[in-house]
Amino acid sequence: MYVIFVVTIICFLMAFVSTITKPIFCLFFRDAAEIRILRAEVDLLRRELTRISMRDEYIRYVKVERKLVTAEAELNESKNRDAGRRKVYELVVRYGLYAILALALVMISIAYRYKPIVVFGESFKFEPFGRVLNFPTGVPNGISTVFWIAVNNFVARTLASYVK
User: Fold this and answer.
1) From CA 27, how far away is CA 21, in angstroms rounded?
2) pTM for the whole thing?
3) Cα separation of 149 and 128, whole Å?
């Protein structure tokens, strides 16, 4: 009986894996030290630039402005490099978790392929869909694991599309 809940939880986790991994990923992967140092340097140069009068100290103003442009270029380059690395990690984590959950569903469906998840009494008649509902178990008025996985995936993905 616990299989019904395990399959439901796994299907919902698979549907919401991208929503779940984004905040977790942001907690663990912050900006690199190089980027934080460059941001501080850019902020310092901007503050210094606002204190310098362009009319009175033009040469000093231009020198600070050149340093600022160079620091901003380095910051953008570091951000782009870090963003590429971060995206690779994010994709590996997201699809890795998705693959693990999918593998768990495959293993559950193989292990419980001939055992129904739920068997209803004789008062329930699922005709003409009874064979689809109980495939491959063959148990009358039963719901198979394979069918339960398919239904849960559909429901979870539908809910996930409405949440986004």
Assistant:
1) 10
2) 0.74
3) 20
Residue 5's Cα: distance from chain center in Å? 22
Q: Which of 135, 112, 109, 130 is nearest to 120 (CA)?
A: 130
Amino acid present at 13: L
Token match 């616990």: residue? Answer: 2
Whose CA is closest to 14, among 110, 107, 112, 100? Answer: 100
Cα–Cα distance for residue pair 63/74, rounded to 1 Å: 17
- Ramachandran region, residue 138 (left: φ > 0; alpha: ψ -120 to 50; beta: rest): left
- Please provide the average confidence, as pLDDT, over all residues in the chain: 89
Q: Which tens digit of pLDDT belongs to each residue from 94-121?
A: 999 999 999 999 999 999 989 999 888 8
Q: Rounded CA gap, 144 and 138, in Å?
A: 9
Nearest to 49 by CA among 70, 66, 35, 72: 66
pLDDT (average), residues 112-131: 84
Burial 49-68 (b: 16+ CB within 10 A, else e): eeebeeeeeeeebeebbebb
Q: Please, what is the Cα angle at 80 between 78 and 81, to 5 degrees? A: 65
Taking the C-alpha atoms of residue 71 and residue 78, their distance in angstroms, rounded to an integer, is 10
